[in-house]
Amino acid sequence: MKKYCLDLTVSSADHLSDKHVLLKLTSKEALPEMRPGQFVEVRVDNSPSTFLRRPISINNVDLKHNELWLLVAAVGDGTRHLYDLKAGDQLNCLLPLGNGFSFSNTLSDNDGGASQEAGTDAGQPKKVLLVGGGVGVAPLLWQGMKLKERGIAPVFLLGARSAKDLLELPLFKEVGPVYITTEDDSAGEKGFVTNHSVLQREHFDLIQTCGPKPMMKAVAKYAKENNIPCEASLENMMACGLGACLCCVEKTVDGNLRVCEDGPVFNIKKLLW
Questions:
Q1: Is the same domain home to 133 and 33?
Q2: Nearest residue to 39 (alpha-carbon basis) of 234, 172, 229
Q3: What is the CATH number of the domain that holds 186?
Q4: Is residue 48 part of a domain?
Q5: Are 96 and 34 within 8 A, CB to CB?
Q6: Series of mean pLDDT values for 10-residue runs along the chain (273 residues)
Q7: What is the pLDDT of residues 205-232, one digit of tens each?
Q8: Secondary structure element (H or E) that encloses residue 92, with its range
């Protein structure tokens, strides 16, 4: 897929919490084709301590309003500058990068072998569980929308430390059923996502997950034990985002692979988890 370096304009900056902001970016030209699971490398201007671009998952592409959504967690100098952006500010973005989730395109498009890659030998799944933790929920919103467009039922299982850390819940609920876990029991069921009772009640044809690596490893373990195909979107430390610097290498059954170029979405069968 062709990559672009674009100067985008912030159309709105919605502060969802004291450390999370939803940036909606637009352009005078139509945004290029992108897929859920891909990411953007964002240049951070006016930050003396930030020398490298910051990788941010694509949260949504709103074709009607020609907007790219980025859900940003302010955890360092670079992302804190992004948190402070206002409507009208410019943001230079390199996009789209990496490979997306299976079944993230439209029915009229070729899956490019994605369904086979996900291990769904029977073809298109009927029901997909999307498991996210923290800001890792970002790519799952748009993926859920795409699944729904294809006639696949998306179900969300979202985990957070506390209710205040749950992001974009109204938007997720518009797409499909939402199940929640919190570590402090302030919302949903207490515990981690793999402890939620929905996993004992319902059957899923495919699991797709993004979030902290310990959470994704636990989800992958559950998927393997129950013989459910599973994909994980890795969030390894990145630098260039183009596969040149080898900063984000992950050891796999196929050797060392670059998360930014060969991923970030991997079939868990390839991972040494």
A1: no
A2: 234
A3: 3.40.50.80
A4: yes
A5: yes
A6: 97 97 98 98 92 96 98 96 98 98 71 45 87 97 97 98 96 98 98 97 98 98 98 95 95 97 98 96
A7: 999 999 999 999 999 999 999 999 999 9
A8: strand 90-97
Q: β-strands 178-182, 189-190: how paired? A: parallel
Tokens of 25: 């970016």
Let me know: does 180 contact 189? Beta carbons within 8 Å: yes
User: In this structure, how many other beta carbons lie within 10 angstroms of the beta carbon of residue 3?
Assistant: 12
CB atoms < 10 A from the CB of 182, how many?
21
Q: How far apart are CA 27 and CA 115, in angstroms?
A: 32
Question: How does pLDDT run across 70-83, given as a tens digit for each residue?
Answer: 999 999 999 999 99
Give the span between the Cα atoms of 140 and 210, in whole angstroms: 8
Residue 270 DSSP one-character state: G
- Residue 170's φ and ψ, nearest 5 degrees, are -60, -35
- CA 173 vs. chain centroid, Å, equals 17
Residue range(s) defining the domain that contains residue 199: 114-270
